Amino acid sequence: MGSIRSQRLALLVVGAFGQNQEALQFVRAKVESQWGKVALVSPIFNFDQTSYYCSTMGADLKKQFWALKTLIDKGELPKIKHLTNNWEAEYADKNNSEQVVRPVNIDPGYITEAKLVLATTKDRDHRLYLADGIFGEVTLHFQRQQWQASRWTYPDYQTAEYHHFFSDCRKFLREQYQDETVE
Predict the structure, then answer these.
(1) Contact indicator for 94, 56 with CB cutoff of 8 Å
(2) Which among 86, 118, 82, 94 has a CA at the least distance from the CA of 20?
(3) Residue 5 falls within a domain, yes or no?
(4) In a domain, 49, yes or no
(5) How far apart are CA 49 and CA 57, in angstroms?
(6) Which residue from 1, 17, 48, 176 has the fewest beta carbons nearer than 10 Å?
(7) What's the pLDDT score for residue 2?
C-alpha cells in the first residue's frame, strides 16, 4: 500500500478569450482582485484555430493567460471554475448583445512540473470528476523537456506559442519550489 503524502501547491493559470481588449481587462482585474499579483502574462494570441465559438462569441477572438504569483491547492480547482463561470455571466449581463451571446470565455487551470490541468463542466471519457459538477482534464503533459499534447487537446493548446508561455510558467513554478527549500 502506498503512503499518502501531502501534495505540493500548483501554479494557477487563467486564460480568457473574447472579441475585445475590454473583456480581457475585465478578467485580469477579477483575477488580481481574487488571487493577488499576476506573476506572468502571456502575449495576446489570435484565437483562430477553430470556428467552434463563432456562433456564440463572434469572430476575431483574442486570448490571453495570466499565471498567479501565489500558488494554490489543486483541490481548489472546482471552486475556482465556479467563480470564473460567475464572472462570465456577470460580464455577459453587462455587455448584452444580440450578436454576441457569450462575450468572454474563461478557462482556469493549474500547472505542475508534469502537466497542465484545465477545469471544465463537460464530462468526457478522458476527464475525471473533481467535485461540484466540475471535471479536470490533463490538457498537456511535460515529457522529454517539452509540452506534449494528447488526442483530445484543444487545437490552440497545441501551438508553440502557448507551449512557450507554459514553459515560462513551469520555470516560474520550479523557482517557487526552490525558494521553499531555501527558507
Answers:
(1) no
(2) 94
(3) no
(4) yes
(5) 14
(6) 1
(7) 87
Instruction: Give the total number of structural domains in the chain.
Output: 1
Residue in the block written with cell 497542465: 116
**84 in any annotated domain:** yes
Domain of 146 in residue numbering reads as 11-182
pTM: 0.94
Cα 58 to the chain's mean position, in Å?
A: 21
* SS3 label, residue 163: helix
Q: Where are the beta strands (DSSP E) in the chain?
A: 11-18, 38-41, 45-46, 62-68, 104-111, 115-120, 128-131, 134-143, 146-149
pLDDT per residue over 22-61, tens digit each? 999 999 999 999 999 999 999 999 999 999 999 999 999 9
Could you give the angle at the alpha carbon of 168 between the alpha carbons of 142 and 69, nearest 5°?
110
**Residue 105 grid coordinates:** 470565455
Nearest partner of 64 among 102, 31, 95, 37, judged by Cα: 31
What's residue 181's pLDDT?
Answer: 66
